[in-house]
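Review box. Two proteins, two foldings.
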Amino acid sequence: RTHGHSGPLRHRGRSNTLPGNMQQALAAHAAPAAARFNVASKAPQKAARRATAARRTTTLTRAEAIAEPPAVAAADANLKARNDVRNVAIIAHVDHGKTTLVDSMLAQSKVFRDNEKIETRVMDSNDLERERGITILSKNTAVTYKGTKVNIIDTPGHADFGGEVERVLNMVDGVLLLVDAQEGPMPQTRFVLKKALALNKKVCVVVNKIDRDGARPDWVVDTTFDLFCSLGACDEQCEFPIVYASGFQGIAGPEPDQMSETLEPLFDMIIDNVPAPVVDVDAPLQMLVTNLDYDEFKGRIALGRVNAGTISNKQNISLGIPDAPHRNGKIGEVFIYENFQKQIVDSVGAGDICAVAGLPDVMIGETIMAGGAAGPPSLTV
């Protein structure tokens, strides 16, 4: 089991003595996936993994491809990857260090001035969040790393706010699954991972708080792998990349004993493993509203990812949900997230995350459309 790393097969533990089930898995590494977990109690899970993998890897036959409607084929031909953007959400159990890690990512991206006073847990801007010390509402920010814009969404870890996590997963192409280096996967870890796997998001595992006394990263990686298997992840999903990190110290590395002095290994993992958004920038505008914000001067602000086309200032749009009458509106201003602030821009293309003002009655789950675009299905949580 390589856990996403190339090179000879080896166990991540420091000891050569492995539990019985892991010995079976290592001995059968070259065997088909169905033979790797030859345990009777996991037969239903094997069948589920096979069915899931089959559904996700089914390819069209030549006859089916020829019979494909010309309009669909033309639409697929217009899809292009935006290699200058990555959209990622940070998901984890409560108090596993998501917001602290984002603090370090922002600091190392030169978001703040050298003489600027920086608050701890800067993403927790709500008064109640700062009082309780937890994240309640998901927050957006963005950093630029080696010429690539990385949109980062910090999500709540408490079970009561799981709906926030489900919604923002529709805006991203991959997730960072943070796991405490001492506690390992917890109940909310299972919940958020299940949602990410169901949406077929690329999952990158970050073993956080590696500097804690009593950290046991080898055990955490093994239990995380077992969690993937119990949730019916296919073979490709189980080959997840791993980075070890300390959000508090702002360090990361490919192994617990190979820590860098910065978070560069974490950023490199995001760029290399989270897929770039594949979109049609020239199509009619289509943007699904997944969250709301409020400004005392600009009023209600809609947040979401532009799925197709381009959204611009002062653009006339229609707003609504599928199978219901649409209403007309006009975009007031368009913002992007850059350096922990909203910046007004003229337009935002498909694949990027933005916020728009000027729609006082916009609601979560509605679609902003223009040019005859059809809205995607409403969000179900």
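Next protein.
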Amino acid sequence: MHNLRHHVHNVYKSAAETLLPVRSSSAFKEKGVLTPEEFVAAGDFLVGACPTWSWESGEKGKRRPYLPDDKQFLVTRNIPCLCRAKDLLKGKMEEELLQLQEGEAEADAWVATGGSTAAGGVEDEIADMSLADDPAEGAEGSGSAVPEGQAASASTAQADDAESDSDDVPDMEDFVVEEEDDTVTIHHPSSNREGERESQAGEENKILRTRTYDISVTYDKYYQTPRFWLVGYDETRQLLKPELALEDVSAEHAEKTVTIDTHPHLPLSSASIHPCKHAHVMKKLLDSLSEGGKEPSVEHYLVIFLKFIASIVPTIDYDYTMAADIGGS
């Protein structure tokens, strides 16, 4: 039923957009909406404040006439997503509230993330650490007496170890040098090549492979606000099914404010945060900034918008605009 309702709404919205005029008067403070010109101005400010964002023209046949050809939508690419949103929620739920002693005031409580078992594990690992590689050296350093018989055994063992170590030293005969017509060919032991391959494989295993997203922001003529789109890739850089992007959206918003729609400028379907509430939320955020002594201009609109969207996709770390100066104090 939800999908049917969404489809009917999309048909109605598309028809309405062909009839409705493009907004030409500014009302971003009064209503939280933008004109196309204000969207471009806010996009220019975002690109200047955060160069990871850039303008795109999209497919020629899908360009909107009320936007410049080279500034149809904004995009930032290859944004990592280290974990799923449910994993982040699980981590928060595992925070345990511990009382320093029974009956103390709640203000004296402290929070330990991950529980006490993790701390115990760290303590066990620290207890196993020793600065002395040789147990005999540790005993000597502590002042303990070593019986003569054990000392002799230790000396014999050390001699055997030294002899064993000498066996590990590569023999020059392992390297065969052939001289022919002033050409020298050196054949290294095959074990060296195997060691190199193992080392390379180990380095590759250290690379953290994650989901990544290309994020785009378009202008929605019907709602007169920006719209946020997610195009995902799995750990092997294969295109992610749009439905799987819901795993990286907070549970509060997944399947409620996030829909799967055709991207307005690209030939694919994509997960999108539906813009039906954007104007209302932006109006409240702008009012809150004004009450705090800041007067954001329309150029700051997208910076504020992206900070608001970050709460919906908490594991996608795209927000690099913290340094942008919003308004005056």
